[in-house]
Amino acid sequence: MQVELGQKIIDKIKADSLSPKPRWHFLVREWLVWMMGALALIVGAASVSVMRYLAENSSWAVQAPYGQTFAGWLLLSLPYFWLFLLGLFLWLFYYNLKHTKRGYRYPMIYVAGIALFGSILLGLAFYTLGVGSAIDGVLGRKAPLYAHVFNPHIDFWSAPEEGRLAGLVVAHVEGEDTFRLIDRKRGEWIVTYNPRDDIFVVVGQPLRAMGTISGEQSFEAVRIMRMRPGREYFQRFGPTVISVSGSGMHRNK
Amino acid sequence: MENQPLESELDDAELVRLSLADPAQFSLIIARYKDRLLRYVRRLGASNLEDAEDILQDLFLKVYLNLNDFNQELKFSSWIYRIAHNESISHFRKRQARPEAYSIPLDTPGLQLLANDLALDRHVDAILRDEAVSKALMAIDPRHREIIILKFFEEKNYNEISDILKKPLGTVASLLNRAKKSLKETMPKEWHENK
Predict the structure, then answer these.
(1) What ranges make up the beta strands (E) of chain A?
(2) CATH class of residue range B106-191
(3) pLDDT bracket for residue B185 (50, 70, 90)
(4) CATH entry 1.20.1090.10 includes domain B12-94
(5) What is the mean predicted confidence (pLDDT) over B55-63?
(6) DSSP A212
(7) What local confidence, expressed as pLDDT, does residue A63 receive?
(8) N or C: which end of chain A has fewer CB within 10 A?
(9) Which residues pair with A226 in a beta bridge?
(10) Chain B residues touching A19 at Cβ < 8 A
(11) What is the pLDDT of residue A65?
(12) Which member of A5, A23, A108 has the closest CB to residue B53?
């Protein structure tokens, strides 16, 4: 029987003209697995760079005066979408590495550790190269649900009744301590501020203000800060191009 | 026929090289591994000889088609056992058949080795003990059974098991410990030497 089996196999190889798959087939497959792994690591790192960039708008020290606990601030500020994306691509990296020729030899904890630290290190490098800012910019301009999904800080800073106002500066007169701002609901505000913060008030740029509502659509800011993540998002609400001269504010359609 | 005396002198890598050059030489690999793999496939649970031979034929064809994927850092026997393992599991899955309990040919040396490792009472009748170990082996989780078969019946070391099952060494060690523990728990308590 066993002699027959061997002969049967050789006969089948000959009858069906079977031949071993070429070496390049396996090399390409291995290369693809590595490339997919590298791609997963890069996407994971890009998520880290966006998270690091988003953290520029997030500071517990700033938000603590609003009576928020550290845990509450953390829950509110965590970029869930980016964390999910990072988790997904870490898993893809792990899966691909495990499917390389020798990947199974490495313990899960090492591979997961390499994936996590690799993503963080590469992500921080991407952040310094401006990748986080660029991705946030593209999403801010185009992505639906940007403020809810990609940048949870926008919601936090869009609560004027609680003393937090964010929006785009649409008009400002040099030497005066007020400017006009359009928030994400396209509501227009006149904001009074301390000239100390003058540096942050730039027409066409968004900012964050802490203070109180002082009248109908008026806000008195005690502190003004830049709003870097979400900068492009607020451009969606700028209905006009603004020019400013010493004698007043002009809006050009 | 001329190749017969040479076969035992050639190492596996050399046989692979010859098979790549001439398909007929692949019969040397078949001759070297068919008995071992037939036993292994049956131990994994191929219910009858016919089934086992079907698996064997498919797996040798797969080995032939993938000869260029053989990585020389690995022992050829580990590589071919890996294919045998995967082919058997996929065959059972396709047929939606559970490995059959009493078809598995478990030889006495393997059973003895296992009984010693499990520290079973040496005074128990050997035939009774072997029967009970065989039965217990069929009652445990298939993943546990597979690793015990590789260790005690195929006599593979940890590195080889790691390469066959594609698991890290640490996982192999802990899986084997769990498998032995589970097997021992399935055995009658009065047979445990350290009750």
Answers:
(1) 164-172, 178-182, 188-192, 206-215, 218-226, 241-245, 248-252
(2) mainly alpha
(3) confident
(4) no
(5) 95
(6) E
(7) 66
(8) C
(9) A207
(10) 23
(11) 67
(12) A5
Give the nearest chain B residue to A21 (CA atoms).
B65
Q: Tell the burial category of B18 from Cβ atoms under 10 Å away from its Cβ (0-12, 13-18, 19+).
A: middle
B39 CB near a chain A CB, below 8 Å?
no
Region B89-110 average pLDDT: 70
Task: Please give the Cα distance from A243 to A241 (Å, whole number).
Answer: 7
> Where in chain A is CATH 2.40.50.140?
160-252
CA-CA distance, B84 to B65, in Å (whole number)? 14
Q: Which residues of chain A have pLDDT under 70?
A: 1-3, 59-61, 63-68, 239-253
What's the CATH architecture for A160-252?
Answer: Beta Barrel (2.40)
What does the domain layout of chain B look like in residue ranges?
12-94, 106-191
Distance separating alpha carbons of residues A7 and A13, to the nearest angstrom? 10
The pLDDT assigned to B186 comes to 86
Chain B residue with minimum CA distance to A7: B27
